[in-house]
Amino acid sequence: MANSNDRILRFHAPDKVFHTVNAITWFALLFTGVAVYFCDLAAETAEYVMLWHLILGTIFTFNLLGFIVIAPDRFALILRACLEWDRNTIYWFRNFGGYPRRFFKIPFGPVEVPPQGRYNGGQKASYLLFMGMIAALAVTGWLLWLGAPLLGKMVYMWMFYFHVWGSIIVSVLVVCAHIPLALLSMEHFKGIWRFGPGTISWEAAEHHAPIWLERDVVRTNIEK
Length: 224
Ligand code: HEM
Description:
This protein is mostly helical. The chain has helices at about 15-40, 45-70, 70-85, 85-95, 100-105, 120-145, 155-180, 185-195, 200-210, 210-220; strands spanning about 5-10, 200. It is a multi-pass membrane protein.
């Protein structure tokens, strides 16, 4: 039975490995992709950078597949938490978690933030987008690399633009929203990034995810 002196396991080893490898390869793919497409590189350099883009893309793909195959329970738990849209989730968007009021002094919506589960409304929406985009970039990447002969010219072109601009738009969201917001809770930040256990303090869980703490950790312990 959990008590308030305990630290709570939020990120299991597979979550941490998946997230870390995904984040590192994501930005490495972004830099190599942008370099080849937008910078006027010499042909030989472009070829070398593209080779690295393909190697990184292979690691990126197998990181996702590995997570799903090795830890299907964790993948399902994260996905299920993102797909649970109850009233509190919808009401989170009435004041965007109170962040506009807290950081920009904009009196947007009610003062109180409704209690949230494992993820708040904004995290659910963005993590669904991120996971969908990780899968979509992997699929379109392989098709653009090896599937070109199977695709019509128009399909290839639209897939290419989706791959380039979709990745850039989501990267802007990651850099401008996901990372700064992640830094607001050092407990969560250290929990997912450190080499040690993926635990967070009781207080952090109670503050950010009281429904998750009460229902999924204390009462049913589906987090184990
Ligand atoms: C250096 C860059 C990054 C930092 C500092 C960072 C930070 C974090 C932190 C602190 C969490 C935990 C939030 C929570 O407790 O709910 C998290 C979760 C998550 N991040 Fe990132 N992140 C980074 C890059 C990325 C990238 C590039 C993606 C994908 C495009 C991504 C996708 C996710 C997803 C899907 C989760 C939820 C996974 C889970 O709860 O196990 N992150 N991130």
